[in-house]
Amino acid sequence: MKIKLLYILIFLPFLKTFPQNYDWVKHDSLVKAGINQIYSIEFDKAEKTFDKIVKEYPAHPSGKFFKAMTTWWRILLDLEDESMDDKFYDQLEECIDMCDDILDKNSKNVDAMFFKGGSLGFRGQLRAIRESWFKAALDGKDGLNMVFKSYEVDPKNVDVQLGFGIYHYYADVIPKKYPVVKPFMIFFPKGDKEKGLKELEYVALNGRYTLIESRHFLQKLQFQFEENMEESRRWGRALLRDFPNNPNFQKYYGLTYVKENNYSEAAKVFRDIFNKSEKGLPGYNKRYKREASYYIGQEFKNRNIADSSAYFFEISEKLSREIDKGKESGFLINTVLYLGQLYDMMGQRDKAVKYYNEVLKLKERNNSHALAKQYLKTPYKR
Length: 382
Prior knowledge:
Elements: H1 24-39, H2 43-56, H3 62-76, H4 85-105, H5 110-129, H6 133-153, H7 160-177, H8 193-206, H9 211-224, H10 229-242, H11 247-259, H12 263-279, H13 286-302, H14 306-324, H15 330-345, H16 349-361, H17 368-377
């Protein structure tokens, strides 16, 4: 989450600058439909929509860019899975090459600038996630330059302010929260948090293609950095009104209640996520099910309903062992400790002891070893 946030430059774009006799109304309608399909986690439909754009508008980079964005969201729903990284990089490179060809003929083509900037920004973001920091920084710098150039040519384009807003906000807050980022800031101009927030909010209300992405950024940054849970929920509600089956939008909405220690409300959200995972809705993979079962279990534990709590924590434990692959997440460590406590609450001391001993085999987290040793000596009591 550290450096990578600097490279989330844009999810933008766009049109009205190509000389061909395109049916721009149809193009616009197809792009919007495809974008909505991405956020609705209807990836196969989105890819077909963007394939149609590529076929009907072969000289315009929008189809290639948004095909890459479909792959991006597939990656985003399971960031630990790197199997689609190369495909994503190849799609972005194809879009960048196309934009370069257009710019060689017309250096002021706004669409080509936009889509090249967006491609560089997203490539930089994934490189940062994969901890390729130097390459990520270069992509971020080049992508930001393209955004500024496009704005100089077309300052009336509202969508471009998403790129500005993201940059201005994160370039201000990230170095303050994570000093390790500061050396990379030599590549970038100074940030401005308040300016960034205003730009993002303006796009979130007035954007053409980037309205939803702006709202999602506001939802996340209000949760993660501003710690304004009500404001995060405001944007979350707007997103879920249009995209009720987007697990990322829904997760952040539920986490605002966790942050406030309001597990009764959090459990309502995560129970819905859990049920959608059980039904196999697209995007609701085992990572979302693991997190949902964890918070449902926590809510039951808070109400001293030990058997129901243990049921959901055991689901979370099983999924954590499948997902973690030896990395021992906080979900796993906490879950194993809580299961020991829950079995003590139910008077099943043998099971409780087994879980406490298991905690000692896992890495230390938040005094987990000391607590396990304490409960091995004296049974946990609520």
